[in-house]
Design goal:
The chain is an alpha/beta fold. The chain folds into two domains: 88 residues, 2-Layer Sandwich (Transcription Regulator spoIIAA), CATH 3.30.750; 96 residues, Transcription Regulator spoIIAA (2-Layer Sandwich). 33% of the residues lie in helices and 15% in strands. The protein is built from seven helices and eight strands; from the N terminus they run ββαβαβαβαβααβαβ. The chain is flat, with a radius of gyration of 21 Å. The two termini are 17 Å apart. The structure holds iron/sulfur cluster (SF4). The site of iron/sulfur cluster has 10 residues, from helix 1.
Length: 248
């Protein structure tokens, strides 16, 4: 059956409730004294949330919907936060995280500022979440200060046509350019994320995934003399509520 209506059970509860949104990211609370455990956890570093929301609209993605609208912290605010958290924890790595960190509009300036401040203290920077775009092709050249632990990309599918269906408007050419740029700038490990079972997928799309991985590894041989080390995650698609694919 279908739901006919949803009504409040109490008189003082409004019929529709608006989402609470932090409008000014610079003025909201940020944990300045995170616990530093004795054991080494997975995310053993300063985590700086540089923006909230995502400018992209991948049709399977719930994160961009529930984290909307797109908001940014300023470079000055992030620099101040990094300094205070460093003073309180002594961590030697700062992760600039968000849903799509290469879309942060002042990323170059932020990297230069943080690198200038922390390089002498041997504190590295990392970018855990990158979107393949025009900016990314140039990015590795300006992030010499970034730790080369792993260069993470999420092409999601093996072929351009399925990427258009899921509304991830990147093409193979851009993807391989980003992979080449990563090798040229010293990354040894490329982490790739794919999904299978997406609406509109054909067997050809699935077969294209290992081909894409092989080529990404082979490019390492061409550029740096040995095959690239590729770490692959393949997840099954599950339809999420509030996304365009919730009905498929
Ligand atoms: S780029 Fe990532 S976070 Fe943004 S909409 Fe696509 S999958 Fe979601």
């Amino acid at each position: 059956g279908t739901i006919g209506a949803i009504t409040p059970t109490e008189d003082d509860i409004p019929t529709s409730i608006s989402k609470a949104v932090v409008e000014d990211m610079d003025r909201t609370y940020y944990p300045l004294k995170p616990i530093v455990p004795f054991a080494e956890p997975v995310h053993d570093r300063i985590n700086l949330e540089i923006m909230r929301g995502c400018p992209h609209t991948c049709r399977f993605c719930i994160s961009s919907i529930i984290k909307a609208p797109l908001r940014f912290r300023s470079v000055q605010n992030l620099t101040d936060l990094a300094e205070q958290i460093y003073q309180n924890t002594g961590y030697d790595e700062i992760s600039l995280f968000s849903l799509s960190s290469s879309d942060y509009p002042w990323l170059d300036e932020l990297l230069v500022r943080l690198s200038g401040r922390f390089k002498a203290r041997r504190v590295g920077l990392s970018l855990p979440s990158l979107h393949i775009n025009e900016k990314l092709k140039d990015l590795p050249g300006v992030i010499n200060a970034v730790r080369k632990t792993g260069f993470t990309l999420a092409p999601e599918t093996g072929r351009d046509c399925l990427r258009q269906i899921i509304n991830k408007p990147i093409d193979d050419k851009e993807f391989f350019q980003a992979v080449c740029a990563a090798y040229q700038n010293g990354w040894q490990l490329i982490k790739l994320y794919f999904m299978i079972g997406l609406p509109g997928e054909t067997e050809a799309d699935i077969r294209a995934i290992p081909e894409m991985i092989k080529k990404a590894s082979y490019l390492g041989k061409e550029i740096k003399g040995s095959p690239g080390n590729i770490n692959v995650t393949i997840s099954p698609f599950t339809a999420k509520p509030h996304t365009p694919f919730q009905w498929v």
